[in-house]
Specification:
289 residues, alpha/beta, Spore Coat Polysaccharide Biosynthesis Protein SpsA, Chain A, 31% helix, 23% strand, binds 1-O-phosphono-alpha-D-glucopyranose
Length: 289
């Protein structure tokens, strides 16, 4: 088996973010900040650090702020230069000319549909998918750890994290087979199983390395849980035809698609900062005393 190198990453960012209204009425949810950086930037940095060369955003109406964020801001640069301020904070995220690539998902038909919208840019190569509302903190980062595993086993490698029983109905869930270190064989997948029916506690935390064949499965547009075209269902069809592994991340996950998770991420990352950490810590201690 030849293992094709992973070069491309797809970021589905067309979602409406209804769970964060009113904050997300006129602003993409991916631009919500954790301390001083938008969620999308954490995910893009994770991908670039993991060796990804091409960033593909699957976007939609009302998401222009995302495009501007990864573009040059002449006014900002000129003003900062005139004030003698460092441009490091805004230069780091500029991409090479021609990247990122933006494709549109015209209708909100589900995660599987969003990923399928990137099929022409992905072509016949393996690709990563990162869901930016899942914020992962670790060193090496989550995708980098997955890439290392992928380079050994090939095929499809998806994140796998344990959640409490009462949360399994919110996620894609893995039926685990043989385990070897951080890798677990995937024998089946189910999207948002009804309470009490989950095959395990291993959820899929929004990090995927997939083979392009999944696009052919998505082509059929079959609907699953919630009446949406589910990536989980399409991936499930590949089991048995290609190697399929879950990968357990040694690091911390914050579910920033959830209000409590988002606040936790802000608190944890603020406390870890040298500049504001001490101040936030003493405030939090006083607040809880
Ligand atoms: C999506 C996926 C699900 C995955 C989850 C991770 O669900 O469909 O399999 O576990 O992201 O956050 P959503 O959160 O879009 O409902």
């Amino acid at each position: 088996m030849t293992i094709k190198p992973l070069r491309k990453a797809v970021f589905p960012v067309a979602g409406l973010g209804t769970r964060f209204l009113p904050a997300t009425k006129a602003m993409p949810k991916e631009m919500l900040t954790v301390v001083d950086k938008p969620l999308i930037q954490y995910a893009v940095e994770e991908a670039l650090e993991a060796g990804i060369e091409q960033i593909i955003f699957v976007t939609g109406r009302g998401k222009a702020a995302l495009e501007d964020h990864f573009d040059v801001s002449y006014e900002l640069e000129a003003t900062m230069r005139a004030r003698g301020k460092s441009l490091d904070l805004i230069h780091g995220i500029r991409q090479r000319p021609g990247s990122p690539v933006y494709v549109r998902q015209q209708e909100p038909l589900g995660l599987g549909h969003a990923v399928w919208c990137a099929r022409e840019i992905v072509g016949d190569e393996p690709f990563a998918v990162l869901l930016p509302d899942e914020l992962m903190v670790g060193s090496p980062n989550f995708l980098a750890q997955m890439v290392e595993a992928y380079n050994q086993v090939g095929g499809n490698v998806i994140g796998a994290l344990e959640v409490p029983d009462e949360e399994t109905d919110k996620y894609g869930i893995i039926s685990p087979g043989r385990t070897e270190g951080p890798l677990v064989e995937v024998t089946a997948l189910v999207e948002k199983p009804a309470r009490g029916t989950a095959p395990s506690n291993l959820m899929i935390p929004g990090r995927y390395i997939l083979q392009p064949e999944v696009m052919r499965v998505l082509e059929a547009g079959e609907k699953g849980a919630g009446g949406e075209i589910q990536l989980t269902d399409a991936m499930a069809r590949l089991i048995g035809t290609q190697p399929f592994h879950g990968f357990t991340f040694a690091g911390q996950r914050y579910d920033c698609g959830d209000k409590a998770g988002y606040i936790q991420a802000n608190l944890a990352l603020a406390l870890a900062r040298d500049d504001i950490g001490p101040q936030v810590r003493s405030f939090a201690q006083a607040l809880l005393a």
